[in-house]
Amino acid sequence: MKLLTGPFQEAIYIIDTIERAGHQAYFVGGCVRDSLLNRTIGDVDITTSAKPHEIQSIFNEVIPVGIEHGTVIVRHNQVSYEVTTFRTEGDYSDHRHPDSVSFMDKIDEDLARRDFTINALAMDKTGVLVDLFDGQEDLKKGLIRTVGNGYERFTEDPLRILRAVRFSSQLGFEIEKHTREAITATKSSIEGLAVERITVELEKLFAGTYVKSGLEYINELGIEQHLPVLKNVPILSRITHTIQPLETIAEVICLIHHVDSEAGIQQMVKEWKCSNQVLRKAKTLCHAIEYYQVSGLDNWLAYQLLPGYHDAFARVIEVLSPGELNKNELISLKDNLAITSKKELAINGNDIIDLFPTVQKGPWIQYLLVKLEKLVVDGVIHNEKSILKDWIKWNPPEVK
Ligand code: ATP
Ligand code: MG
């Protein structure tokens, strides 16, 4: 039995309310797994015997996100809960014997449809576990094992192959022998998956604490040759020994580009079907890394890295050149910058025009501002209007 705390406490209301309406309801999947591992719980998911329309009539705030799959979202105290009806074959079609299926059979079938034993755990509102596939045992042993026959489960949904590797990267678990064999036999079916689903799994895999373990499985099980981008740029064996968790796919793209310059940023973004935002982020990071490789760590680099990019930059450098970057130095450079954006420059375009009233306006004003910006950032001149004006007088712009 597990003591229910935090997010579970909050969610007991949902289970209670469903039960009072005469149905069964359990916490299920990742939230149960993570709480048993004492990991931070993500979303609290609930599985229930109540049908979506019944849930809609029980609660005030219900969002019908996937009624055809039996899923709705129930909102309670500003938190969203995915509530999914027990999924069993014939669940909605066999109306002839609705009461002949006992409750245990129902949760039984629902859990049997789940991917891995560690994800096939349910828990009632008092913390009593339903563990029909020795999920707790596998949690203790640190094993990822399919529920039932691996060949069938992976053929049914090849995304599970990537989920297995992704969980090994997040949890540091081993993939159980038969499950591994089943992956080797079915891995080519990954190619039939929607790319977006593959990318989501790969992003989680690269962000996992035990990413090295995940990448070793990708190598060892020969999965790389079936993955977008990586089948054309098989570089994993070159990064596995230094890999560290990378939080975003933009970082991954940047890393691959720097390991193999043949791998174009735009091309990878396209192949992985990432957004334009990812493209922008990957390009910015890559520029910063190129600058760093030529000029090293300096004020201008710290200044150019927008807020939120410093950590990403440090992570990619750490994989490319382990131990080389002094992160404290980067932080201190950033903290001691004279200005943090162009807006803070003590002089603007109008001031410059006033200094040269007879000169025709043009792009030279912008060039001059950028020059001043860099001088101030580099600590060559102080960010004071009079000083900047003096500097300009002694270094008049070339106007073409
Ligand atoms: P996380 O949310 O931390 O990534 P999770 O285990 O909660 O991990 P979800 O994708 O949120 O993963 O799925 C919730 C649960 O649904 C899983 O724990 C598993 O029981 C089941 N599940 C999800 N995807 C599949 C799948 N492809 N095949 C079978 N069961 C699945
Ligand atoms: Mg989840």
Would you spell out the secondary-structure blueprint of this structure?
Blueprint: H1 6-20, E1 25-28, H2 30-36, E2 45-48, H3 52-58, E3 62-66, E4 71-76, E5 79-85, H4 103-112, E6 122-123, E7 129-130, H5 135-141, E8 143-144, H6 150-156, H7 159-171, E9 174-175, H8 177-186, H9 195-207, H10 211-220, H11 236-239, H12 249-259, H13 265-271, H14 276-295, H15 299-304, H16 310-320, H17 327-335, H18 349-355, H19 363-377, H20 385-394
Parallel strand pairs: 2-5, 8-9
Antiparallel strand pairs: 1-2, 1-6, 3-4, 4-5, 6-7
Helix pairs in contact: 6-8, 7-9, 7-10, 12-14, 12-16
Bound molecules: adenosine-5'-triphosphate and magnesium ion.
Helix and strand run: HEHEHEEEHEEHEHHEHHHHHHHHHHHHH
The mean pLDDT is 92
User: Which structural class should the secondary elements be placed in?
Assistant: alpha+beta
What count of domains describes the coordinates? 4
Spans of at least 5 consecutive residues whose pLDDT stays below 50 are 89-104
Give a count of the beta strands, DSSP E runs of length 2 or more. Answer: 9
* N→C terminal distance: 80 Å
The H-level CATH homologous superfamily of the largest domain, spelled out, is Beta Polymerase, domain 2
Major sheet attributes: 7 strands, mixed
